[in-house]
Amino acid sequence: MPAPAMNADAIAQLLRDEFPQFFHPGRGLTIERVDYGNIRVKRRFQEESIRPGGTISGPTMMELADFAMYVAVFSVAGPIPMAVTTNLNINFLRKPGRGDLIADAKLLKVGKRLVVGEVAIYSHGEGDPIAHVTTTYSIP
Amino acid sequence: MPAPAMNADAIAQLLRDEFPQFFHPGRGLTIERVDYGNIRVKRRFQEESIRPGGTISGPTMMELADFAMYVAVFSVAGPIPMAVTTNLNINFLRKPGRGDLIADAKLLKVGKRLVVGEVAIYSHGEGDPIAHVTTTYSIP
Amino acid sequence: MPAPAMNADAIAQLLRDEFPQFFHPGRGLTIERVDYGNIRVKRRFQEESIRPGGTISGPTMMELADFAMYVAVFSVAGPIPMAVTTNLNINFLRKPGRGDLIADAKLLKVGKRLVVGEVAIYSHGEGDPIAHVTTTYSIP
Amino acid sequence: MPAPAMNADAIAQLLRDEFPQFFHPGRGLTIERVDYGNIRVKRRFQEESIRPGGTISGPTMMELADFAMYVAVFSVAGPIPMAVTTNLNINFLRKPGRGDLIADAKLLKVGKRLVVGEVAIYSHGEGDPIAHVTTTYSIP
Asked: Does D138 contact B114 at a Cβ distance shorter than 8 Å?
């Protein structure tokens, strides 16, 4: 496995600069690990993403998957002009608990025009994924 | 086509009661039309859902599709205990402009256990969809 | 709506020339209607695609959706070098009967690099779709 | 990991009995390994599934993924009445070579009503997947 094109700190700095509305401390998003095409991010538990029944909302998980894939794309392509999501497919598997969310993203294909990856989302401390995502990005 | 099981006002009231965090005036979501299994909702343009480049974020569109499908499910099933999204597949088709979003949801199947529908999302005033969603709900 | 780039006869001739293993009379595939980005194809009922329980197999429907999309791509792009399917998402909605299958394909986006479309598959003579497909092609 | 509910021989026998049109020696399908919810199947290379350009057709890969998931479902649920595919999402990643296909299926969720799994398809002897599938089955 090659070294990642950017490490976690460099990706976090890039996101703070380019997406200040999205990636700021109040969001509770952190980059936990960056290998080449294989990364882990975390989302701190926040009361306001809870739906009736105590469930974290679907869009919250889709947003986390999107974030994880951006980090994975940076890990192989470096600070390229922003990739555009073209397709995202999510299966919701289990009801998440009231805890932090972990997302592991792995790239399945890194082409010149398209990057395809999968993301498994976990409730912190639990073994089985709560959601599984496959998604495609178009490289401008 | 049968009459809808609930009209737009009744669905809006139910959502305000059950999802006050999600469906409140600040969210800018309105129910525009409710027929049986075929509905339209709107999301007022909001500066904070804009990404660099002037684009409305993907998760914003996924959230709107989710909302549209809830309304469509209520239109055929009435005030049932909450359905759970099991799968959502979204294709992002065009870059949306800085305007309101319209989402048209149509149910493709209303089974005893699963409801499947599609949602087309438009930028207000434009003819071609900016995103297309198919999604499945499990009825408890 | 512009005129289609190729009509049904020209597309059938192209497919016979380029895909003789796939598009030959024994396959039972016909092109019923070709408008610009909006076409209908048919698959004659064949005993051998039946599964136990009298159902037409899933892969048979996926193959028909793939065929319908090729025809739709030709209707807008003409006899281009072969597009490549990059993503296909299918929802199986109802058990098909023992009859011909009809597939209606409609393009949602015709970009320079990606073409996205949806296909609804019907059992001949029935009103509700038995399967719904969205699919993306990459233009070489 | 619990022991599988059926081993490879028992699943092959069941498929020969129940799906003789689909699972017969001429098809070239074999079950290579069966663990609990985690299995491998193989499809022998066959000249007739080749498309112009030397590529194995998309529907051939979708059929193999479907087969892999049936085997995975049997490995956890035993000889249950036939599950029904409700959703299948496939990303085509690379052009396959002219060789055998390997499919590794892993179940992501085994619920009372829905089973969700993913399948990675490889060209024999190559390291990177040529296609990736997620799919959902409904248990009758």
From this structure: yes
